[in-house]
Amino acid sequence: MASLIIRRIDSVGLSNHERAAVTALCTQAYDEPFAPYLTDIGPGTHLLGYVRDELVAHAMWVTREFRVEGVGALRSAYIEAVATLPSAQRRGYASALLRACAPLLAEHDIALLSPSDAAFYERLGWTMWRGPLSYKAPDGGMVPTPDEEIMYLPLLRTPSPLDTLAAAEVDWRPGEVW
Ligand SMILES: CC(C)(COP(=O)(O)OP(=O)(O)OC[C@H]1O[C@@H](n2cnc3c(N)ncnc32)[C@H](O)[C@@H]1OP(=O)(O)O)[C@@H](O)C(=O)NCCC(=O)NCCS
Asked: Model pTM?
């Protein structure tokens, strides 16, 4: 693959031009307007992948509390908006961004994501969370999400062993909760 230059930047540091480029890239990759999703996801940290001066791939993470029964609250890096321009796909760019994430997550206890293609992430070391998932609603109630799937990537600070059959919960957020 042509060499990918990876740049890390917090959402607040994105220029208007860069934010527009991220939105356009994700809109093309997901084939639907992505601005509302980025609004729902909220501020986080982006990895921008450039070939020459063109933004070709993107991933980001937001920090969310992931509460695991029997373990307690883990500070998770929740990976979102993994996307590669259609014209640049299958060249290893998204894989390169995902591999670049883990060493940058020293202050997190675990990395999580909601996979569209589990096999893609499995090859990169991610594992399905098998325990029941739920979210805590704004009124404090617990809402089971049996149709949702998430995967995790252990980090240096991840408790070991970790019972991935344990029930786990996040706080509600607008849009896609998981
Ligand atoms: C999913 C997505 C991010 C993958 O991006 P990508 O940059 O094409 O990913 P990679 O090139 O690293 O890997 C994709 C595939 O190409 C293969 N590949 C990587 N380098 C390759 C190369 N040089 N030649 C041929 N194939 C290659 C990988 O093995 C992988 O195979 P798989 O399809 O069997 O999993 C991209 O398809 C996308 O943006 N999709 C739409 C948005 C989306 O669904 N995002 C994920 C949400 S969870």
From this structure: 0.95
